[in-house]
Amino acid sequence: MWNSIESAPREELEALQAKRLRDTVERVYHLVPFYRKKFDELGIKPAHVKSVKDLANLPLTTKQDLRDHYPFGLFTVPISSVIRIHSSSGTTGKPTVVGYTEHDMGVWKEVMARTMSMMDVGPGDVVHNAYGYGLFTGGLGFHYGAEEVGAAVVPSSGGFTKRQLLLMKDFGATVLCCTPSFALHMAEVAQEEGYDLKKDFKIRAGFFGAEPASEGLRQALRDAWGLVYIEAYGLSEIIGPGVAAGCPYGNLHVFEDHFIPEVIDSETGEVLPDGEQGELVFTTVTKQALPIIRYRTKDITVLHRQPCKCGRTVTIMESVKGRADDMLIVNGVNVFPSQVEHVLTKVEGITPNYVIVLDKKGVLDKLEVWVEVDDRTFADGIGALENLKAQLQNEMLNDLYINVRIKLVEPKTLERSMGKAKRIIDKREAEGLKS
Ligand code: DLL
């Protein structure tokens, strides 16, 4: 265990949370007009917040709130104190922006070190990090965590599967970090390339997250690589990966001395007791640049507060069971259907009729958008259609950060619906993608 707080008696943990929560509430109330206004509307003063139970009275924060204050409106520090900025998908157009001070980077390293310590990763380990490096928090989050515990990190980022396999074999990687679907894809390619997964590779642990994974997919990864499957959970708005991590007994532990979890009823906002399923909400209590009060993750789960066989006493969250909104996760990248629509509205020559089709290519997700062209473009012939397709694919890549296949269809051929348009066809199997 990296830090003894993970197994502290609950009273000690709750006292620490209460103190940190009071400090955070003072901080946001005095430094962020958005929070002050919301607190004032509810008649709440920072002094009213004494213990973790008082959280229930505080206002909830949403992705839309972050968007409304794009890019730095909810930061509590000037940009001169920020040393890192990441971002993830917003629902349309603008991304969600998050910032870290040097202190926040310290918190992130700490929780990532705890994550890596779930399998005692440390000096002597070679960590092959195939999470994407860039604005996505996965790559750099795991990178700093691996360095913090003293392992050798290989910052390979995503893609280039064959080269990744070569490096993993030749460098003797012992730990693999990537999305579960990419780990399965690598296993398949390795087999095609004639590798013997268990003999040629030394992977003993895999840190898999950023997307849901069914038990079937987890078992397939254990069987293929002969590794211990460790789940990683997190979101950019809270810190990135490192919000919760699975122990070898399979329980997902929330690092709640930094991020206090609650589960609420998505409709009413009411806090639900432990053991009941609802929407996960987090309050950060140690972050400086972007502390966040009661952030609605839209992830559906159940919390349990009981000690685990591994010795940890912090809250256990069940693996995410689904989303309370329409966000799609495509190979670990978050995509909102509204983003697709937003791109389509910027391009001429098409009608507002479209369908998003999600399917699998091997084990990886494939996103296709079928779009009806208008009569004029259709009459312009094949050259015009090819240009339009290329333009749309480009715009999608720019806005969504993923490759989208565009299929242009003739005017008036997509099915019209009588009620709410059915714009998403998800043909991916239950395997690893839906719960
Ligand atoms: O996905 C951070 C991360 C990177 C976590 C690497 C784990 C490993 P975002 O891009 O902001 O951050 O996406 C956050 O991804 O609200 C969930 O819906 C989903 N998600 C993350 N981890 C899991 C998981 C990163 N273990 C959103 N199981 C979250 C299911 C997950 N869904």
Q: Can you describe what's shown?
A:
The protein contains 12 helices and 21 strands. Helix 7 (180-192) packs across helix 9. The chain folds into 2 domains: 1-324, 3-Layer(aba) Sandwich (Rossmann fold); 328-430, GMP Synthetase, Chain A, domain 3. The two termini are 30 Å apart. 31% of the residues lie in helices and 24% in strands. It has 435 residues and is an alpha/beta fold. It has helices at 10-31, 33-41, 63-68, 102-116, 137-148, 161-170, 180-192, 197-200, 215-225, 337-345, 375-380, 382-400; strands spanning 84-88, 96-100, 126-129, 152-154, 175-178, 205-209, 228-235, 240-246, 252-254, 259-264, 278-284, 295-301, 303-304, 316-317, 322-323, 328-330, 333-335, 350-361, 364-373, 405-409, 424-426. The strands form 5 sheets. Strands 4-3-5-6-7-8-9-14-13 form a 9-stranded mixed sheet, with helices on both faces. The protein has a 4-stranded antiparallel sheet with strand order 10-11-12-15. Residues 88, 131, 136-138, 209-212, 231-236, 240-241, 297, 299, 319-320, 329, 334 line the site of 5'-O-[hydroxy(phenylacetyl)phosphoryl]adenosine.
Salient structural properties:
single chain, 435 residues, alpha/beta, Rossmann fold, GMP Synthetase, Chain A, domain 3, 2 domains, four-stranded antiparallel beta sheet, 12 helices, 21 strands, disordered C terminus
